[in-house]
Amino acid sequence: MATRAYILIETRVGKAKDVLSALRAMDNVAEADIITGTYDLIALAEANDMLSLVELVTAQVQNVDGVERTITCVAA
């Protein structure tokens, strides 16, 4: 069973659409949407295990130009 997590993402002003496009192009991001509220985007990520999920968030998502902060909520 895959490890799933919801990633809440804050972006720099004016970068939400660019970040959204980058997230949707990632293999392990099943869904991504612009949202209202404290965070700008939410993404549903799936990986084979927790280590792969950590790698996805820290090496890929957090390195997208425009990403300021992430909160990862692992599905139980």
What does this molecule look like?
InterPro entries: Dimeric_a/b-barrel (IPR011008), Tscrpt_reg_AsnC/Lrp_C (IPR019887). This is Transcription regulator AsnC/Lrp ligand binding domain-containing protein. It comes from Geodia barretti. The radius of gyration is 11 Å and the shape is globular. A four-stranded antiparallel β-sheet has the order 2-3-1-4. The protein has a single domain, classed as 2-Layer Sandwich (Alpha-Beta Plaits), CATH 3.30.70. By secondary structure, the protein is an alpha+beta fold. It has helices spanning 16-24, 50-60; strands at residues 3-11, 29-34, 41-47, 67-74.
List the helices and strands and how they pair.
Blueprint: E1 3-11, H1 16-24, E2 29-34, E3 41-47, H2 50-60, E4 67-74
InterPro entries: Dimeric_a/b-barrel, Tscrpt_reg_AsnC/Lrp_C
Protein name: Transcription regulator AsnC/Lrp ligand binding domain-containing protein
Organism: Geodia barretti (Barrett's horny sponge)
